[in-house]
Amino acid sequence: MVVSVAATGPGTDAEPVSSTFFASRYVRDPLPRYRMPDRSIPREAAYQIINDELMLDGNPRLNLASFVTTWMEPECDKLIMGSINKNYVDMDEYPVTTELQNRCVNMIAHLFNAPIKEDETAIGVGTVGSSEAIMLAGLAFKRKWQNRRKEQGKPCDKPNIVTGANVQVCWEKFARYFEVELKEVKLSEGYYVMDPVKAVEMVDENTICVAAILGSTLTGEFEDVKLLNDLLTEKNKETGWDVPIHVDAASGGFIAPFLYPELEWDFRLPLVKSINVSGHKYGLVYAGVGWVIWRSKKDLPEELIFHINYLGTDQPTFTLNFSKGSSQIIAQYYQLIRLGFEGYKNIMENCKENAAILREGVTATGWFEILSKETGVPLVAFSLKDSSRFTVFDISENLRRFGWIVPAYTMPADAEHVAVLRVVIREDFSRSLSERLVNDILKILRELDARATHAVRVSSATAAQSDDGVVSKKSVLEIERDVVAHWMNAVNKKKTGPC
């Protein structure tokens, strides 16, 4: 690459026309980190500098921690780049983009069996992700509950929401930001989703809704929304309350209709009043786009909808942010009409089969216990049968040597003692990659096992004396972990600002 900067005379510090970037001063000068530089640099140099730094990022295709789409067809990439300069909020200026969003809302509403006729308009909105979608749905539940309590002459200052402890952090954000008590159903070993029976027991007159998860982040499992609906219906009859259900289908909303059409989790259940889904997960669109659909117009309080006219005609809006790009909405519409029901079904079946292959391979190692279910989001969550010699965190760290990003984490309360690895199977994760991952895991298991065995043999290398004078020996492996923990603690103390 040539940095095209012409010399202007003797003494100039401009680079010669023939100079390449790597022969220029730009590779010697320190990069700006905290202050804007005083002088401009050539566009080619700016590109190369940033591109070289980005080489140190992980490979998105090997990021098995994420549910988010990392590959789309070239034709859709062109549509995205062609609309990247459109601000979605300018509905009067970009009416076709607005129409495409409305088409997506209606297609998704019908996919979720909303009780609307073919010629009726569904109630929903595109968002920047499921986090915003959940905030909007939660606000609608809170406002409806407040209005009902005011009509009854009852206090409305202590709303709560019931969820499982396995919910994504956006639910905790909603509760904290909008002053709603979060009542969590604790987990237990072997049962890592919300128990509908316990959830309904926690419901009271201040509950604005019960949130069920269709595709738990931890294990991919679908919660039993139908049982929750039946139990909550009975409780509402007994108490006279009207507690509804929201389904967080961020991961599973674009899976269940294609793989498990007989599963009742959506608007077929009377108490389900709203559903969110992430278009940028199994909706097969790049980040970030989400959707929230309401059962009917009466489930979205009118006072939450703003009407503006300073961008042209009257425009209704119900979002937390204002400006946002149009590209992802256009990309969602592309996927819906390009793939159709048949295409989505084929992709989800492939993901499910590749997850099964990976599950078999992990099981065949003999080291792991599979915690995820075969029905649910196509992922494999597994824990070590014996963590005395090394942990899942050791495995996760070593997998990065091969380029794989596989998260290790502990379960929420009351199952914190269970630590797992989780591999998410996306559209672009093939069977050959699955087999390669298992081979790399086997290599790491052998290395860690050999190191642990060696550490036991030389465990007399050091000894530590306790307060009571008893000398206890530490293995080499324990020493290594102590040293790593010491330096990690030192690094963490130097970190500043929010994560």
Keyphrases for this structure?
499 residues; alpha/beta; 7-stranded mixed beta sheet; 4-stranded antiparallel beta sheet; 12 helices; 15 strands; globular; pyridoxal phosphate; PyrdxlP-dep_Trfase_major
Report on the structure:
By secondary structure, the protein is of the alpha/beta class. Helices cover 37% and strands 14% of the residues. It has 12 helices and 15 strands. The protein has helices spanning 43-54, 74-82, 95-111, 130-151, 169-177, 196-202, 225-239, 256-259, 327-364, 392-399, 431-457, 476-494; strands at 123-127, 160-164, 181-185, 207-213, 245-248, 272-278, 290-294, 306-308, 315-317, 368-370, 379-384, 408-410, 419-424, 462-465, 471-474. A 7-stranded mixed sheet has the order 1-7-6-5-4-2-3, sandwiched between helices. Strands 10-11-13-12 form a 4-stranded antiparallel sheet. A two-stranded antiparallel sheet has the order 8-9. Helix 3 (95-111) runs parallel beside helix 9 (327-364), helix 6 packs parallel to helix 7 (225-239) and helix 9 (327-364) crosses helix 11. It is globular.
Quick overview of this protein structure:
The protein is α/β, with parallel strands linked by helices. It has helices spanning 43-54, 74-82, 95-111, 130-151, 169-177, 196-202, 225-239, 256-259, 327-364, 392-399, 431-457, 476-494; strands spanning 123-127, 160-164, 181-185, 207-213, 245-248, 272-278, 290-294, 306-308, 315-317, 368-370, 379-384, 408-410, 419-424, 462-465, 471-474.
